[in-house]
Amino acid sequence: MFRRYGALGLVMVLFAQLNFIFRIEPLAHWYFPIIWFGYIFLVDAVTFSLSGESLISSRPRIFLILLGLSAAVWWAFEAIGWVVGNWYYTGLEGFGSRLESLAFGTISFSTMIPAVFETSILLKTVHIFDKVRLEERHMISKSLLYGMIFAGMLSFAGPLIYPGLFYPLIWVSFFLILDPINYMNRRPSIISHLRDRRLSVPLSVYAGAMVCGFLWEFWNFWAVPQWHYSIPFVDFLRVFEMPVLGYLGYGPFGLELFAMYHFFMWLIHQKRGVRLFK
């Protein structure tokens, strides 16, 4: 059964797409939450029609948690971005007040994690990566776990101390810190699949983030409020606003969001953490 909000989502995406041409205000300035909530509704409805369950229909409380967590996470990245200086925004002067601009940012940022996870869950639902496995089972040692955490701390500190050289590390730092912690606390983790050899979840999350990354850049290119990049060493061969090598960061970013989500759920649920992937 295809949920009705999926049809609404399709209308929202199509409207926002057409409004890149007609620029009807104030909706043209609010394109981001319109098109991304539309995308989320549509993908969620497709997932439900295929599997009989989805985030919005089956786990609405988790979906609402994701919205809040997503906004908080990206505001944190905005603070990091202010130091690193790899992206900036134009077109925000069209908002009537500072408060409206902050509301636009918060609502827009709230769609980031839900969009990545909805896409990843859909990819998992259609079993694209089910047959992909590691050839050998790998043991996970304490030295690996603590080494990852230490590397993550260095990866977080490096871009803040010397952003011109170490800026790419910010997109793996939280994964390196939090995924081992999740594993040690028996929460879902990416590195746990080194033991069971199954790569369906890691690859679905990685690919889901890559799909969203492409759509973020595609829809941003036509928008009124836009972000732009200033990226040392790789600022060439742009696909929309993003240099082509910059797209390589979206996959690891998806793994980072996966680790953040399960760490957060461990904090608030302790042993009752909620899995997104079955």
Structure description:
The chain is mainly α and 278 residues long. It has one domain. It is 65% helix and 4% strand. The chain contains twelve helices and four strands. The strands form two sheets. Strands 1-2 form a two-stranded antiparallel sheet. A hairpin with a 2-residue loop joins strand 3 and strand 4. Helix 2 packs parallel to helix 6 and helix 11 crosses helix 12. The longest helix has 25 residues. The two termini are 21 Å apart.
Provide the fold topology.
Layout: H1 4-22, H2 31-51, H3 55-58, H4 60-84, E1 87-90, H5 98-109, H6 112-125, H7 142-161, H8 163-166, H9 170-184, H10 193-196, H11 200-221, E2 226-229, E3 238-239, E4 242-243, H12 250-269
Antiparallel strand pairs: 1-2, 3-4
Helix pairs in contact: 1-2, 2-6, 4-5, 6-11, 7-9, 9-12, 11-12
Which outline best applies? Answer: globular
* Major pleated sheet: 2 strands, antiparallel
Which class do the helix and strand fractions yield?
A: mainly alpha
Distance between the termini: 21 Å
Q: What is the arithmetic mean of pLDDT? A: 95
Query: Which regions are unreliable across 5 or more consecutive residues at pLDDT < 50?
Result: none
Task: Tell me the strand order in the biggest sheet.
Answer: 1-2
User: Helical percent range?
Assistant: 55-70%
Count of DSSP-assigned helices: 12
Outline of this structure?
With 278 residues, this protein is mostly helical.
List the keywords.
278 residues; mainly alpha; two-stranded antiparallel ribbon; 4 strands; 65% helix; 4% strand; globular
